[in-house]
């Protein structure tokens, strides 16, 4: 099901939009502040974001700038009152895809959402994230706080397996089998230990990469978020 994030502090508007889009077959998560929206993105990247221009802890383009520094192709639609439309120009310069002026007809918003999703399919499946780490499967690239990190093929495959199974422990045996042995390249157990050590160093010792003693490793969200 297509996942949409709606960052909006007005509960009534958020409820109406969510109910309408859910009836149209979308999954909608509502966040009331920029920080809540960021936490949502860190858990899972949606296929589209609706962002109110004025939020309790900042402007919509602050969130857009943060999104674009990590996930360039995620479509973003601003929702704004008419007096803010001049400021929206700055939003487009930051990379917004569209905007809708409040008050708006739900059918109009729905048509904009559909049109934008047709142009940007399968965005959420392309990205994986955990804490300050993100992975672009299409580009086969790894990022820390939005900056690309150079990793080896084995390091990339390890991180891909761990992030694909975020929240689950991946055993050392499974990592050795899927990263090395499947190609007929047998290696000893110490090879994985060294690869994990190098990966941690390149990613600035991320607290979300956990060692599960005697079993393996697990990617797990932290309680806080790097702004």
Automatic annotation (TrEMBL):
Residue ranges for the DNA-binding region feature of this UniProt entry: 125-221
Keyword DNA-binding found: yes
Swiss-Prot/TrEMBL keywords: DNA-binding, Phosphoprotein, Transcription, Transcription regulation
GO cellular component terms given for this protein: cytosol; protein-DNA complex
A Pfam family of this chain: Response_reg
UniProt-listed PANTHER family: ALKALINE PHOSPHATASE SYNTHESIS TRANSCRIPTIONAL REGULATORY PROTEIN PHOP, REGULATOR OF RPOS
Functional note: May play the central regulatory role in sporulation. It may be an element of the effector pathway responsible for the activation of sporulation genes in response to nutritional stress. Spo0A may act in concert with spo0H (a sigma factor) to control the expression of some genes that are critical to the sporulation process.
Annotated protein name in UniProt: Stage 0 sporulation protein A homolog
Annotated source species: Sporofaciens musculi
Lineage per the UniProt record: Bacteria, Bacillati, Bacillota, Clostridia, Lachnospirales
